[in-house]
Amino acid sequence: PLSLSAANYYFGYFISGNLAVTPAPLTVTADDKSREFGTENPEFTGSIEGLQNNDSITIAYSTDALKTSPLGRYVIDIHLIDPTGRLSNYIVTRIDGVITVTKPITETLAFAPAGFDNQTFSLSIQSVVGVRYSLESTDSLTDPDWTIVQTVTGDGGPIVFTDPAASAPNRYYRILIQQ
Questions:
Q1: Spatial distance between the Cα atoms of 135 and 147, rounded to a whole number of angstroms
Q2: What stretches of 45-146 adopt beta strand conformation (E)?
Q3: Distance separating alpha carbons of residues 155 and 132, to the nearest angstrom
């Protein structure tokens, strides 16, 4: 045992202890994005909060959304890059983002020539995956009410619309495009 003495000092003895170093919180977030169907994904961005001691942890992103993916929402996954092996010093909270694939703002439909055979009307268009198309008809362009003849959700292939009851002398058609 250690013994120290001096007349004008008091010596105290301390018991050695342990210092606990706990992981620091780290929050990693991917920003939400959107794009139109048929276009490339935008550059993904996000943030990382809670890095300590200038640790060089960075973020990479990925998604299942491809240029030809149907309309909808897809997860933007977060991948942490840790070249110096410091990630074990953190408790990581990941907040994945979402990329929303929307229909094009302007859409050009390619029509095959419309046909009329024995009072059956038919029209063919090239569809976009996930887009809803409705063929409507009216017997008068001044009539504000149109009748739905057929509704189809696109699968990327051609859609053939038919109206077997096209018996009016003047019948008008339009296609509504809905997301």
A1: 8
A2: 46-49, 58-63, 72-81, 90-95, 97-102, 115-117, 120-126, 132-138
A3: 10
Q: What is the pTM of this model?
A: 0.52
Residue ranges for the chain with pLDDT beneath 70: 1-4, 11-14, 104-119, 166-170, 179
Cα 55 to the center of its chain, rounded Å: 30
User: Is 33 strand, coil or helix?
Assistant: strand
Residues 48-94: pLDDT tens digits? 999 999 999 999 999 999 988 888 899 999 999 999 999 999 999 99
Q: Which amino acid, residue 58?
A: T
In whole angstroms, give the CA distance from residue 159 to residue 176.
Answer: 13
Residue 58 Cα distances to 31, 38, 87, 120, angstroms: 15, 30, 10, 62
Pair of tokens at residue 155: 């699968």
The number of C-alpha atoms within 13 Å of 114 and in the hemisphere containing its C-beta is 14
